[in-house]
């Protein structure tokens, strides 16, 4: 499976993908990494791994739509089977997303539909949540609103602050992404008009990451 990765920051999820491929745990190839920030560490990680890395600044474009058209023309040029948003912080235009429905996923640090947007760990703490976690979902035009494929659940512990909770979520976020990509690469997961399909059956709830880092129906 040919992967294009969009990232705006440190690239920890990209590193997890590259490591899983190198270890033979994921049958995929990262064919390009793209960022809206020229100094994103993800670009450095890609180059160190010999993966083409491209940054494009939104400042030179008159609108979100114009920027997305330019960005996705670069993405499309590497012919990805799947686009992975891994810490990509820009909102995308509806037209760009709708053209790629079912071929673009995002990893988000909460149990969607709870706590969309930013500062999810603090949101969870402020809400008094007993359980937090991460979700992988298909990208739609709604912010963090696409059909959820899989989730990893993490308990909120007494005395947690946002930093401690974020660290524990990240430990499960990486295996969640790899397990989801593995199932996508094997053709087990698809999106159609009925929702997320797993081995041909429509999921009523997201797949769950098990203790041994596999996905299981709820």
From TrEMBL:
<feature type="binding site">
    <location>
        <begin position="11"/>
        <end position="13"/>
    </location>
    <ligand>
        <name>N(1)-(5-phospho-beta-D-ribosyl)glycinamide</name>
    </ligand>
</feature>
<dbReference type="GO" id="GO:0005829">
    <property type="term" value="C:cytosol"/>
</dbReference>
<keyword id="KW-0658">Purine biosynthesis</keyword>
<feature type="binding site">
    <location>
        <position position="106"/>
    </location>
    <ligand>
        <name>(6R)-10-formyltetrahydrofolate</name>
    </ligand>
</feature>
<comment type="pathway">
    <text>Purine metabolism; IMP biosynthesis via de novo pathway; N(2)-formyl-N(1)-(5-phospho-D-ribosyl)glycinamide from N(1)-(5-phospho-D-ribosyl)glycinamide (10-formyl THF route): step 1/1.</text>
</comment>
<feature type="active site" description="Proton donor">
    <location>
        <position position="108"/>
    </location>
</feature>
<comment type="function">
    <text>Catalyzes the transfer of a formyl group from 10-formyltetrahydrofolate to 5-phospho-ribosyl-glycinamide (GAR), producing 5-phospho-ribosyl-N-formylglycinamide (FGAR) and tetrahydrofolate.</text>
</comment>
<feature type="binding site">
    <location>
        <position position="64"/>
    </location>
    <ligand>
        <name>(6R)-10-formyltetrahydrofolate</name>
    </ligand>
</feature>
<dbReference type="InterPro" id="IPR004607">
    <property type="entry name" value="GART"/>
</dbReference>
<protein>
    <recommendedName>
        <fullName>Phosphoribosylglycinamide formyltransferase</fullName>
        <ecNumber>2.1.2.2</ecNumber>
    </recommendedName>
</protein>
<dbReference type="InterPro" id="IPR002376">
    <property type="entry name" value="Formyl_transf_N"/>
</dbReference>
<keyword id="KW-0808">Transferase</keyword>
<comment type="similarity">
    <text>Belongs to the GART family.</text>
</comment>
<feature type="domain" description="Formyl transferase N-terminal">
    <location>
        <begin position="1"/>
        <end position="180"/>
    </location>
</feature>
<dbReference type="Pfam" id="PF00551">
    <property type="entry name" value="Formyl_trans_N"/>
</dbReference>
<dbReference type="InterPro" id="IPR001555">
    <property type="entry name" value="GART_AS"/>
</dbReference>
<feature type="site" description="Raises pKa of active site His">
    <location>
        <position position="144"/>
    </location>
</feature>
<dbReference type="InterPro" id="IPR036477">
    <property type="entry name" value="Formyl_transf_N_sf"/>
</dbReference>
<dbReference type="GO" id="GO:0006189">
    <property type="term" value="P:'de novo' IMP biosynthetic process"/>
</dbReference>
<dbReference type="GO" id="GO:0004644">
    <property type="term" value="F:phosphoribosylglycinamide formyltransferase activity"/>
</dbReference>
């Amino acid at each position: 499976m040919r992967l294009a990765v969009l990232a705006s920051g440190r690239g920890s999820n990209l590193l997890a993908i590259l490591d899983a491929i190198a270890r033979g745990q994921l049958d995929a190839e990262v064919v390009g990494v793209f960022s809206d920030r020229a100094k994103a560490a993800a670009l450095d990680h890609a180059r160190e791994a010999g993966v083409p890395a491209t940054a494009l600044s939104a400042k030179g474009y008159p609108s979100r739509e114009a920027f997305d058209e330019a960005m996705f023309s670069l993405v499309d040029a590497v012919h990805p089977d799947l686009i992975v948003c891994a810490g990509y912080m820009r909102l995308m235009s509806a037209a760009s997303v709708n053209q790629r429905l079912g071929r673009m996923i995002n990893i988000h640090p909460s149990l969607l539909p709870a706590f969309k947007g930013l500062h999810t760990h603090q949101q969870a703490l402020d809400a008094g949540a007993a359980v937090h976690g991460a979700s992988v979902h298909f990208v739609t035009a709604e912010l963090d609103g696409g059909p959820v494929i899989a989730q990893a659940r993490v308990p909120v512990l007494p005395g947690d602050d946002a930093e401690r909770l974020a660290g524990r979520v990240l430990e499960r976020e990486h295996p969640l992404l790899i397990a989801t990509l593995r199932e996508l690469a094997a053709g087990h997961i698809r999106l159609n008009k009925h929702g997320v399909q797993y081995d041909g059956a429509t999921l009523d709830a997201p797949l769950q990451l098990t203790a041994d880092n596999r996905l299981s129906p709820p």
